[in-house]
């Protein structure tokens, strides 16, 4: 692939010359602001060779740069080597922003091109505001990859899946009433929904258009009089057509959305900032626009009782698969035949045997020793390391079930460890437990809790570059907003019913990586004269490896939490396991004791 990267970049430069453009910006996203996108829109991956899920490529006539975050620094360095593309380590103090870099390398009055269809309103407006300082103009162009990407994959045509009320818990009609109330509140007549997980949740439908994410390519226009789904018609089976008809939802071609919105009778329309710039421009030509967030993000994030019950059931089945896998791994690692790649296949095999399994929720990260330090490492048949009965394996994985989505990381002891590894493992565990035990007042956001997970590392001058927690969808995207736990400010308050991960880590380049992750549920704690207080309930059911713990660093309170969690894991899973598996789990969840 690397040998063809310069030719691909040159083809884009030819397009740029024809359109009198000095630079072109290629994001990772698609027309729906997706984190993970269908192959048809993987333009940045195709032209640069960098396969990470997050990154923005900027190409001028003489230079090229890729901006990505700390999860992908090591991966990007390897994949960009020899491509002519320079890595810019985003969010580091010494790294210029894209507008700063463009302002430095281009003359005033330059034109910066981007494809409006795959860039959000928010991004384009923010970019233009920054580039105004340098008297540089942003212009929206046609899709250059239509011509230069000769073997570009087509849009997926796979059929939709109806998610019955036994899984979804709330009907489309009830959700529609909430959206109509939102429109009335904001004195608007309609809202355009383009984010795929929001459409899937709204309609109680799922698809397979995006790998690991059960969504389908579409737009949804909801007005006070009509709901219209813009989709490829061949994706609709007879039963889906019947369902949409019963819901009084009109169906129109996916390709007609831009023209339709231009010719729709004038409305006051809500266009969320995540909407692509092309549709925003089309809507602005005729309608009064309110650029505010869709209410669906928050509605979807707070799970209903049926969804919460589904999560509990899905986590239980996922826990059974994880226990069977861990037992198998520990018993076979000494054979020196296991690799990072084939253990992933085995884990998927255990999960696939569980009821309502629909696939993995993201590509498994199985990093042995130094590969564990690459935060979003993916093993292939060619590069997979062989496991040995020593050191650490970082395993981050998850599954999609009809009743819930799972996301779990365990750092697994395969054999003898160094004292440094044990200390770092224990620092991660302490932060993980501290966040798990958090009690916080109503109105608290994830940023205010992030330090709980980092405090012990910081005292040892250690930190990690990724967020500590993200929302998890209900048989939807494994990364879900608007709430998060991270250092940079995310204002969304945590509410009962929200699912969120807890995943601190330590990564030492060319040595090892350590991360422990549970998915948690925000629940009520108690109501006092000072207001409502909330807590976290662990949803994930899987033992945490105690063989790496440096016991002298743990407090009695931390030991008590870990023992209680392991007791909960055993009681939740043992009756679903065979006798030998029960014995293995009993041993893995034995209470630990410390004496200081």
Task: Write a brief structural summary.
This protein is of the alpha+beta class and 596 residues long.
Describe the structure.
This protein has 596 residues and is of the alpha+beta class. 35% of the residues lie in helices and 21% in strands. The radius of gyration is 25 Å and the shape is globular. The mean pLDDT is 96.
Task: Give a quick set of tags describing it.
19 helices, six-stranded mixed β-sheet, alpha+beta, 28 strands, 596 residues, 35% helix
Question: What's the total helix number?
Answer: 19
Beta strand count: 28
Average pLDDT, to the nearest integer?
96
Our estimate of the beta-strand percent is: 15-25%
Shape summary: globular
Read across the widest sheet, the strand sequence of neighbours is: 4-3-2-1-5-6
**Largest beta sheet, briefly?**
6 strands, mixed
Q: Portion of residues in helices?
A: 25-40%
Which regions are unreliable across 5 or more consecutive residues at pLDDT < 50?
A: none
End-to-end distance, in Å? 57 Å
Whole-angstrom Rg: 25 Å
Instruction: Specify the structural class.
Output: alpha+beta
